[in-house]
């Protein structure tokens, strides 16, 4: 995360938050009070800021199969992973019907 801005305003009885992170915009309009709205901003920034990118694979040079976003079912980290069979082992992959990242793999 290089840059983030957060805005907060009221629409009728609800608080709206809008967060721009590295050019991506998130808007939520659900907050009954300002404390909840601020808490949500903190949470979103923390999630985005801590998201590791070392589990992201580059798109495949050998075929056009898309990347798929997978989340480890043990610790919840996510990453963009190739769906084709090219290249090395996937950083997040299915083992016995659950998804595992490098760290959680048994
Ligand atoms: Zn491929
Ligand atoms: Zn994991």
Description:
By secondary structure, the protein is an alpha+beta fold. It has two domains: 1-50; 56-106, no CATH class. Helices cover 16% and strands 40% of the residues. The chain has one helix spanning 34-50, and strands at residues 4-11, 14-21, 24-31, 67-71, 78-82, 92-95, 98-101. A hairpin with a 2-residue loop joins strand 6 (92-95) and strand 7. The radius of gyration is 18 Å and the shape is elongated. The structure holds zinc ion (2 copies). One zinc ion binds next to loops.
Short descriptors:
single chain, 106 residues, alpha+beta, 2 domains, 3-stranded antiparallel sheet, two-stranded antiparallel sheet, 1 helix, binds zinc ion
Whole-Å distance between the termini?
31 Å
What percentage of the residues does DSSP assign to strands (E)? 35-45%
Question: What's the tally of helices?
Answer: 1
**Pairing-aware structural class of the strands and helices?**
alpha+beta
* Number of separate structural domains: 2
Reading side by side through the largest sheet, how are the strands ordered?
1-2-3
Low-confidence stretches: none
- Mean pLDDT, to the nearest integer, reads 87
User: What ligands can be seen in this structure?
Assistant: zinc ion
- Please provide the count of β strands: 7
Radius of gyration, in Å, reads 18 Å
CA-based shape: elongated
- The topology string of helices and strands comes to EEEHEEEE
